[in-house]
Amino acid sequence: MREKKTMKETKTSKTTHVLPPDTNHHGTLFGGKLMAYIDDVASIAATRHARKPVVTASTDSVDFLQPIKVGDAVTLEAMVTYTGRSSMEICVKVTSEVLLTGETNVAAISFLTFVALEGNKPAIIPEVVPETEEEKWLNETAQNRAEHRKARKKHSEELAEFFRKAIKRMEMLVIEHLFFYVAKGS
Hints:
alpha+beta; two-stranded parallel sheet; 39% helix; single chain; 33% strand; six-stranded antiparallel beta sheet
């Protein structure tokens, strides 16, 4: 029987001040910077749960809901919401706070999948157990997100194969043209 851990044992939060070098020409936080913060806090939650090295398997979504402005504080809260044998889903909620007024907004939501490793192989991890109503809802709806993940991955694999074939066709055209020009020149 697998070990069990509660979702709250995996909770991780991080708050940072949004400064001018973190922002784009609109004075809002770079999306890529926020994505790096999300991956960082999610990896901490995943490692806390597994107590093993982890790798990001996928970023299912990053839904930017509100801009995060220079001068705001941005808080990221992550927790493991669902576990397989070696993989785990992590939900990250991003909140912005206007520090001068205290106004807060949910600025982004993201779901990521991590895999725990032992050596270079997937490692068995504890089962996650929800306790609160919010945790139970996140855990119960995870299977639907997992199905979307699998369908999206299959589509990505099909796209990769399409591009591999397209590159091969382009390489063949280049070779044909080279032979044509070499033959024409001699």
